[in-house]
Amino acid sequence: MAIRNDILQDDEGDDLIENGDFQFGESTQQHCQDIMEAMPGDYKHSPLTGLGVVRYLNAPDAGLEDQFERELRTQIEEMEGMKISNLDLNQGIKNLTFDVE
After folding, report:
1. What is the 3-class SS of 41-59, one letter each residue?
2. Residue-wise pLDDT tens digits, 27-59
3. How many domains does the chain have?
4. Structural domain contains residue 16
5. φ/ψ of residue 32, rounded to 5
6. Domain range enclosing 93
7. pLDDT, tens digit, for every residue of 51-97?
8. Exposed (0-12), middle (13-18) or buried (19+): which is 88, by Cβ within 10 Å?
């Protein structure tokens, strides 16, 4: 997989600026986080992009892990072209961990 480079963000999601200039760097993790937090329709140029993880975190049904995993794989693997490995949902969606290649 090609290395993804983009403008880096700080922990609050703001663009990282040092010495008056945007900071660029490897951004795969940042892209995954942005996709997970975004709701479908948030990106006008790509309206289907966005998992909307908050929908799953606030859902009354705790058995949504299978649906969440399918949607996560669709967003990250099919739409973004990354490969998910080491996906761990054993502790629930709030404690999700995975790697991307």
Report:
1. CCCCCCCCCCCCHHHHHCC
2. 788 888 889 999 999 999 999 999 999 888 877
3. 1
4. no
5. -60, -45
6. 28-39+46-101
7. 999 888 877 766 678 888 899 999 999 888 889 989 888 777 888 88
8. exposed
